Amino acid sequence: MSKLILAVESSCDETACAISRDGREILADVVYSQADMHALYGGVVPEIASRKHVEKISLVAEQAVRQAGIKLSDIDAVAATCAPGLIGALLVGANFAKATALALNKPFVPVHHIRGHVAANYIAFPELEPPMTALVASGGHTVILDVVDYTHMEVVGASRDDAAGEAFDKIGRVLGLPYPGGAALDRLSKEGDAAKYPLPLAIIKDHPYDFSFSGLKTAAVNLIHNAQQKGQEVRTEDLAAAVSQTVAHSVVPRVIAAAKDKGRKRICAAGGVAANSTLRGLLERECEKAGLELYLPPLKLCGDNGAMIACQAYFEYMAGNIGDAAQNCYATMPASMQVCQFENKL
Ligand code: KG4
Ligand code: ZN
After folding, report:
1. 167 to 159, 187, 241, 260: CA distances (angstroms)
2. What is the DSSP annotation of 257-308?
3. Segment 326-344, tens digit of pLDDT
4. Does ligand 1 come within 6 angstroms of the Cβ of 275?
5. What confidence tens digit (pLDDT) does each residue in 130-161 have?
6. Which of the four, 19, 64, 136, 281, has the lowest number of CB atoms within 10 Å?
């Protein structure tokens, strides 16, 4: 019997609901993006995000059910992202999903957002199965995972401070680009010369799989400010190329080393920054050289979406990772933890 999962994603500024069948097939995928509103403030305003989720979540879910052409009673489980993310935003989606599960008398499945990003690859590549090494690079996280199984993963390395996406967005903002700046910097980088502005790699000495993007961010921002003080022009295209290349050269060798270290034969990428063309190009070249299979999801599955949560929710459901009535949400949580077993240590 096939399993239908309705999943809600509300960890940041997108109110999303998707319905999956047996994990790999997406019957509905509805997103209401708040990005334009937050762009007015140059970044996500948590309180506005929570309030917009409250306004939109019911409509988005109703639309998803209509799009899938199913009845609510056909659904086997209701899922929601419960960690990590903006806590107020997460609570809106999780409470909506818990209430829906209760009304339907179906299980509630809490999902880890980062695991969801990895699962975007299962939608894009129906033949892909763990084990594998995953790079998740987004606005909030930059992490290398050893994906042992669909619901078991180990954090091999992570950023100790800012995420790669945060660095792109901050540099974009200082350059006067609209928020979020990552995609715009990527476009501009194609016309630029990365060699014009040498920047420090976002790596940590003696920690072969960890990152630090705050130094790169500060170096780029200082470069812009110094030039402005001297009345010199910074060529945006060249700086965009330098930032993209520095991020790619910081991340790719470490992901490949992690795969080799863990004896994995395949690498997948995910998260908004995995849409970056320089990063994708370098991953392609280096994986080919290293004899590793590479899985790069299409751009629309890299950024936040509900489909990836509905896909991961199926695997969590099949593994028996069901939340109880007291299931809470958490702003931070390593992807190695089972969300349904995580206890608030506060
Ligand atoms: O995964 P995502 O949609 O949301 C989070 O979970 O954070 O990632 C958003 C991040 C933003 O920082 C955005 O600037 C960045 O992904 N991003 C990119 C590109 N497209 C989106 N960064 C670099 N190059 C891109 N093409
Ligand atoms: Zn995300």
Report:
1. 12, 16, 14, 28
2. HHHHHHT-SEEEEESGGGG-HHHHHHHHHHHHHHT-EEE---HHHHS--HHH
3. 999 999 999 999 999 987 6
4. yes
5. 999 999 999 999 999 999 999 999 999 999 99
6. 281
